[in-house]
Amino acid sequence: MSEANPSSTEIRQPAPQGATRIFGSPGRYVQAAGLIDRAAEVISTLKVARCAILCSARSQRNEALRLQASLHGAGIETRIATFGGECSLREIEQQVAFLRDDTQPVDALIALGGGKTIDAGKSIAYRLQVPSIVMPTLASNDAPCSAISVIYTPEGVTESFEVFEQSPALVLVDTAIIAEAPARFLVAGIGDAMATWYEARACQRNPAGITPFGVRPTLAGTALAEVSARALFDYSTLAVQAVESRRVNEALEHIVEANTLLSGLGFESGGIAAAHAVAQAFTLLEEVDHNYLHGEMVAYGVLTQLLLEGDQTEAERVGRLFAAVGLPVNLAQLGLEATDSQSLATVVEATLGFPFIGNMPLEITAEQVQQSLLAVDQLGTRLMTELGDLPYARLHGAE
């Protein structure tokens, strides 16, 4: 890692014939119920002697205690770094300074927690020039397996992203911990993961489409994205039921893998497009950003992208699944109104300004984005009339 800072990739078009393709992946991915209590068995393979554990104050009273017990039992020392809650450059630099101010430097960093903790951990590990180990406590997004961190302002608005030279050395997922978290987080992960296939499909259809690595999509990344979507259609409902009962079953194992591994590798090596453009645009609206999860915003983005592409059949199919598991399918379920022209204008402008909107295989105009946002609202409202909104209401405590 010779560079002082990670790269920030920009769209480069057109991609020439024979353009570079890159497939990124973690050194090893391990998923099992109860894994945290034997995490040292896997972490010891890196020959580390002293690990930093980046986690929230809440986690320090729960999962971090179990992780420390496993590591200490294997003779690995630990140092806790308390995550402040926002993956901002200010937070990252503060944590780097904290961990450098020590007579005994760490030789690995474990990011234990949700998506922003994980992204911050990857950025901190890069700057410390140590391997990153990712241990998600939620299956709410596909950050764990990627070599990418989304950077936010201290207020939580998307600011930029970083691409690292190396993927995480290890990704360890304890499905028993995932099953203990509120079902809303797993459901949000389903929204984030579903985007992976449709965005990868768009990048493949566009001869100039590129991945976050700044290169052409790989067949492998696109294939994994498609497998992820297939698993979501087949197992999501059963997996959500399992989490609502706080138990691990085969459906949950499949969905955790789809949300975490398949989606993570699929978006990174297959590409992103309009679904995430819409989701990141929603973060500019304080009332949405502060009350809804990334995957919930992405879910609305998926439906918007499908209607931008004119794929009404697939929008119906995806919308029905989203409604069945409790993802937002109309603007009201994101705390917005179709008549709020100012908020819609903000979303439209930011969508068109997203770095990877050019991956769409057709020209996108502001009018098309606005029409599609409103068409999703109409579709979702109709689905709610047909199917009811009980799953959404249950997840959001509005029964």
From TrEMBL:
Q: Which domain of life is it from?
A: Bacteria
Q: How is the cofactor bound?
A: Binds 1 zinc ion per subunit.
Q: Does the keyword Magnesium apply?
A: no
Question: What is the enzyme's class at the highest EC level?
Answer: oxidoreductase
What GO terms are given for molecular function? glycerol dehydrogenase (NAD+) activity; metal ion binding
EC number assigned by the record: 1.1.1.6
- Assigned keywords, A-Z: Metal-binding, NAD, Oxidoreductase, Zinc
Quickly give the catalysed reaction: glycerol + NAD(+) = dihydroxyacetone + NADH + H(+)
Q: Which NCBIfam families match?
A: PRK09423.1
Its family remark reads: Belongs to the iron-containing alcohol dehydrogenase family.
**The protein, known as:** Glycerol dehydrogenase
